[in-house]
Every structure is written in C-alpha cells, then in structure tokens.
C-alpha cells in the first residue's frame, strides 16, 4: 500500500483539514499519515478557536515519518504561520520526495483566517516554489497574484503568474465562480479544463481539502498529473453529490461515497 502524508491542521468536525485528508487517502486506497500543524475548534457552523503546535513538534513529526515510512506523495494544507512554514521548508529539504501538493489554505468558508495574514508572503516565497502542484481557489489565487478572477481567461492569467513562481503545475479551482464547476490545470506544456455541472448542495465543507488530498493519493498510486486531476475531480464531484446533513451548518462532503457498506458488514 502506497504511503501518503498530509501536513495540515485538525478540523474537530471531521469535514476538512487532516481528517478530510486521511479519509480521502483511505477511500482511494493509500496508507494515510499526518503531521498536525494546528488544532482548530471547528464545526459545521464555523471555526471558533485555533491553537498552533510548536515548530519543534511539527519538525519531529516530519522527521520520524520520513525516517521510517517515506511517503510516496505529500499534501500541505493549513500551515498557520511563518514560523511553521519555515520549519516545514527546512525539514523537508533534508529528504527526497517527488510529489508535493500544496493547497494554499488561507480563509475557511466561514471566514476565519487559517493562515496569519503576515505569513502569506512566506507561503508564496518558500512553499509555492517547492510544490509539484498548487491548488488555489479563486480567493487564494487573487491573494497570491492580485489578479481579479471572474472567468476562465482570468484563471489562465492568474494561473500563469503562479506558475512563474516555480511549481510544476497549478490547478485553478473554480468552485467559487458562477455557473459550471470549472477547474483549470496549467503547466508549461498543459492547459486543460475540467468541467462538471454545478451541484446545488448545501453541504460543501472541506471540498478544497478533499480535492487536493485525492490528487495526492492518485499521484502516489502512479497516475500522471492530468489523470490524477481527472480522477480527483470525479472523486470530489461524487463526494459533493453524496454529501449529507450532519450538524446545523454547512455539512461535510461524503468521503466514502465509493465504499459498498454491504460488503464490510
Ligand atoms: N457546487 C459545486 N458543484 C460541483 N463542484 C463543486 C461545487 N463547489 C465546488 N466544487 C468543486 O470542488 C472543488 C473544490 O473547489 P473550491 O470550492 O473552489 O475549493 P475550496 O474549498 O478550496 O474553496 C473544485 O473541483 C470545484 O470545482
Ligand atoms: C483545519 C482546516 N484546514 C482547512 C480548512 C479549509 O478547508 P476547505 O477545504 O477550503 O473547506 P472550507 O472550510 O472552506 O469549507 C478548514 N476549514 N480547516
């Protein structure tokens, strides 16, 4: 079984962050591991408190995993602060890895800053160039590039700007735009559109985390980037389609839409 690693924050409600990543890694058939950067007190109604872990424990988690179970692919989500970013960058430098998927998490759907605003520059300067693929939503891409994004042409302009920072690929997610759910994969030799009909669903907590960890899992399983994104898009679309009401706010997507529960009873 291929090992996959997420470096991200904990979401106590289980719909986003580390919990979404581990569920997705497992549902796709990889062995999920985690390095926790911060703990959020969060439910379907919002984020209420965040406590960051020390950079020392972040570093140690990465070291002990790499020294024992080197991951086939890594995903980075909520990194919280400049101090944690620098620790992740310095620690990962010591190891070999091929696939680093960076979801540049900044603000939750409920409006809470999961990345301290002053850490944005460090995420751009240090983490983006290390990534195999960066997966910003439109708000994050606007923050990174200062390009206003309203349509696919704007996604292309902003995506190319992000590409020039150094990652191999950029997946511009269009979940926040109107109309179809269109994502655009941009590389030096690739421009590919992934389109699905917009689903009218309330429960979309954790969509971004889930898509980026699905892509991570498919890369670990050996798919090339175009196919990994295509399979990731199918996975997230089905997870949204099969999402369910739990809690009183925006509920989670269904990470295990592909499991036949009759078979495991
Ligand atoms: N209502 C929807 N129907 C279908 N796909 C959606 C919907 N909302 C988001 N998506 C898809 O979910 C993925 C995550 O996108 P997005 O919501 O933009 O990310 P984030 O959660 O980081 O803000 C993308 O593939 C996007 O196109
Ligand atoms: C701990 C943690 N990490 C990331 C997020 C953001 O997740 P995302 O997939 O963008 O979904 P929403 O929260 O925006 O629905 C999070 N909420 N918590």
TrEMBL record:
Gene Ontology MF annotations: ATP binding; hydroxymethylpyrimidine kinase activity; phosphomethylpyrimidine kinase activity
Domain Pyridoxamine kinase/Phosphomethylpyrimidine kinase: 11-254
Enzyme class: transferase
Pathway where it operates: Cofactor biosynthesis; thiamine diphosphate biosynthesis; 4-amino-2-methyl-5-diphosphomethylpyrimidine from 5-amino-1-(5-phospho-D-ribosyl)imidazole: step 3/3; Cofactor biosynthesis; thiamine diphosphate biosynthesis; 4-amino-2-methyl-5-diphosphomethylpyrimidine from 5-amino-1-(5-phospho-D-ribosyl)imidazole: step 2/3
Gene3D superfamilies: 3.40.1190.20
Entry-linked SUPFAM superfamilies: Ribokinase-like
Reaction(s) catalysed by this chain's protein: 4-amino-5-hydroxymethyl-2-methylpyrimidine + ATP = 4-amino-2-methyl-5-(phosphooxymethyl)pyrimidine + ADP + H(+); 4-amino-2-methyl-5-(phosphooxymethyl)pyrimidine + ATP = 4-amino-2-methyl-5-(diphosphooxymethyl)pyrimidine + ADP
ATP-binding keyword on record: yes
EC number: 2.7.1.49, 2.7.4.7
GO cellular component, one term: cytosol
Pfam families (UniProt xref): Phos_pyr_kin
Keyword match Nucleotide-binding: yes
Keyword line: ATP-binding, Kinase, Nucleotide-binding, Thiamine biosynthesis, Transferase
NCBIfam families: HMP-P_kinase
Name this protein carries in UniProt: Hydroxymethylpyrimidine/phosphomethylpyrimidine kinase
Organism: Tepidibacter thalassicus DSM 15285
């Amino acid at each position: 079984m291929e090992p996959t690693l997420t470096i991200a924050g904990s979401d106590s409600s289980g719909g986003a962050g580390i919990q979404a990543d581990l569920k997705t890694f497992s549902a796709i058939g990889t062995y999920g591991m985690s390095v926790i950067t911060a703990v959020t007190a969060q439910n379907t109604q919002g984020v209420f408190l965040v406590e960051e872990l020390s950079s020392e424990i972040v570093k140690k988690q990465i070291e002990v995993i790499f020294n024992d179970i080197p991951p086939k692919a890594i995903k980075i989500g909520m990194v919280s602060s400049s101090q944690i970013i620098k620790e992740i960058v310095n620690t990962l430098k010591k190891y070999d890895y091929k696939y680093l998927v960076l979801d540049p998490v900044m603000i939750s759907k409920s409006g809470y800053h999961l990345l301290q605003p002053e850490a944005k520059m460090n995420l751009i300067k240090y983490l983006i160039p290390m990534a195999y693929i960066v997966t910003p939503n439109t708000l994050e891409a606007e923050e990174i590039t200062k390009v206003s994004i309203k349509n696919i042409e704007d996604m292309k302009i902003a995506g190319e700007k992000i590409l020039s920072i150094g990652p191999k690929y950029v997946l511009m997610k269009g979940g926040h735009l109107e109309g179809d759910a269109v994502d655009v994969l941009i590389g030096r030799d690739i421009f590919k559109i992934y389109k699905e009909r917009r689903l009218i669903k309330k429960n979309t907590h954790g969509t971004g985390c889930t898509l980026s960890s699905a892509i991570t899992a498919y890369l670990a399983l050996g798919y090339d980037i175009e196919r990994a994104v295509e399979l990731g898009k199918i996975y997230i679309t089905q997870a949204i389609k099969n999402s369910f009401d739990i809690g009183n706010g925006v509920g989670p997507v269904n990470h295990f839409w592909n499991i036949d529960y009759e078979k495991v009873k």
